[in-house]
Design goal:
Strand content: 25-35%
Bound molecules: adenosine-5'-triphosphate
CATH architecture of the largest domain: 3-Layer(aba) Sandwich
Number of helices: 11
Number of strands: 15
Structural class: alpha/beta
Distance between the termini: 33 Å
Helix content: 25-40%
Largest sheet: 6 strands, mixed
Shape: globular
Radius of gyration: 23 Å
Amino acid sequence: MDYILQTQKLCKQYGKFKALNELTINVPKGSIYGMVGRNGAGKTTLIRIITGLNNATSGEFSLFGVKNNDGKILEVRRKTGAVVETPSLHPEMSAKDNLIQQTKALGISDEKLDDILKLVGLANTGKKKAKNFSLGMRQRLGIAFSLVGDPEFLILDEPINGLDPQGIIEVREMLMRLNKEKGITILISSHILDELARLATHYGFIEQGHVIKEMSAEELEKACRTALHVNVNNTAMLSEVLDGMGAEYRVYSVNEADIFTPMQVTPLVLALNEKNCFVNSMSERHESLESYFMGLVGGVRNV
Ligand code: ATP
């Protein structure tokens, strides 16, 4: 398999604190690679190192097969576009004029700007000023900035944070277009796991600066189990009953839990009722990315 990005035991230390702890990640060419991790897991730190905004303390990475200590790294970085922080737009300018400024700053031709505006769904914004754009439009304009250099690899840190449902759909469709039509490999970090699950072809699960698992979307699909999802008046009581049965389960809130051990529903309901635990609803469901992730990082009980 061809990889656009591979890291090898990458470490980043701030004093004694290890923001990255031997992080090894492999981003296949052509993939949409979802980086999943809690706040502070190290996602932004990794992105800043790859994009050259920061240096690693130890370890190495290769981008397009070029090692980070090779002089050619600057050259291959030009094939990479990144949106790490909210890009600074010119509020009084239209989308196209904003992009023209960007081409001037980079000293490159502006002949592809109409295509880029089309790709990011901003072709019809005419003279509308950026200050009057919705957050989703601004986000897409930010991504358009990173497309000006015609990248083969796009790195996006939380690109759908703060967007409303419509904005999320627009960004999702745009990313899929960039991946499918232009063949751009995309590395994306997001907290919105349901959304990531609609996009990603590969995943890296990061915890405390370390990749604890990497897998393809197909492997994730296989790994996610079928669960009996229950809504009860009191999951503490549910836990007591399930512990007594030696069952495997995961509690999400005072009302919701998934039970993974196959079991007869009637005896379970009767055992719960005896403990004054009443079932509001029950349904079979496939484990979600969020649930799988919670299981991996051990933020839950008895799994
Ligand atoms: P989030 O999802 O909240 O953005 P993240 O996974 O992107 O989190 P990072 O921003 O990479 O996490 O931060 C990883 C850890 O490194 C955090 O505990 C953060 O506080 C710490 N950290 C980041 N930059 C510095 C710094 N300059 N000095 C000290 N600690 C830092």
